Amino acid sequence: MHHPLAFAFGILGNVISFMVYLAPVDVHRICKSRSTEGFQAVPYVVALFSAMLMIYYALIKTNSYLLITINGTGCFIETVYIALFLIFAPRKAKISAFKLLVLLNVASFGIIVGLTLLLLRGSTRVTVIGWVNVGFSVCVFAAPLSIMRLVIRTKSVEFMPFFLSFFLTVSAVVWFIYGFLIRDLYVAAPNILGFLFGVAQMVLYLIYRRRRGKDPEKAMPSAMAGSEVHPIEISIEVNVVGATGAAQVDGRSIAAVRGDVHVGPTSHDESLPSSFSPNC
């Protein structure tokens, strides 16, 4: 049984992480428009994989039910997100998302579980899975760099909401304290990096919040990978809108840059389709 203070921070971490899981605005847009537009499935697949790894770690370690509850909830929510993406995505994006899902969440996770169950025992197994979680978390924590780079390039915080960065930072602090109190290095350590990135994002917000952003067409890359533009024989204008999203649970920050390429005629009502092809 956890110390009462550790239990309190664990409950608080569950609440905050649950709110972060529900944060992705792009999912709400997908459901409303019944189209994935230019969004990616990568953030949801990665978040699902991250939650699965943490559940496996919690199952082979004793007294880790607070990790199981939030990551179990996370698995369910991310699975729903992925299902919605597969329902509304165009055929090419569906195939790409399904391949990533099988490769990461079925094959890779299966190999990790199989090897550790067959080759390792007791505390050694816990240690190895713990370090696998830490390594994956460190890799995922590099994702906010793309958000910060976009803010610096555009001199605009439009794509980095302050309150999201704030709650991600609070989440990192809460889970660090929880890991420290239960003396779990593999829970506490990754959240140090999460805290640093969260603070950096809030500092950037304070620097650029009053500045007028650059023209997105000049600030954003000239081409977004995976986007499709179909030419037509009329005068057209192209608007490129970039957006970023980030989510973090148990110290694992998930961020993605999405590009929506909207192509429409200047004097006609028809519009052209675009596609953009998410580990938690």
UniProtKB/TrEMBL annotation:
List the top taxonomic levels of the source: Eukaryota, Viridiplantae, Streptophyta, Embryophyta, Tracheophyta
Known role: Mediates both low-affinity uptake and efflux of sugar across the plasma membrane.
Per its UniProt record, what Gene3D superfamilies does this chain match? 1.20.1280.290
TM ranges are 6-27, 39-59, 65-88, 100-120, 126-147, 159-181, 187-208
One Gene Ontology term, aspect cellular component: plasma membrane
Q: How does it sit in the membrane?
A: Multi-pass membrane protein
Identify the species of origin.
Spirodela intermedia (Intermediate duckweed)
> What GO molecular functions are on record for this protein?
sugar transmembrane transporter activity
Any idea which UniProt keywords this protein has?
A: Cell membrane, Membrane, Repeat, Sugar transport, Transmembrane, Transmembrane helix, Transport
Q: What is its main location?
A: membrane
Q: Where in the cell is it found?
A: Cell membrane
As for family, the record states: Belongs to the SWEET sugar transporter family.
Q: What is this protein called?
A: Bidirectional sugar transporter SWEET
PANTHER family annotated for this entry? BIDIRECTIONAL SUGAR TRANSPORTER SWEET11 (PTHR10791:SF22), RAG1-ACTIVATING PROTEIN 1 (PTHR10791)
On whether Repeat is a keyword of this UniProt record, the answer is yes
Q: Does the keyword Membrane apply?
A: yes
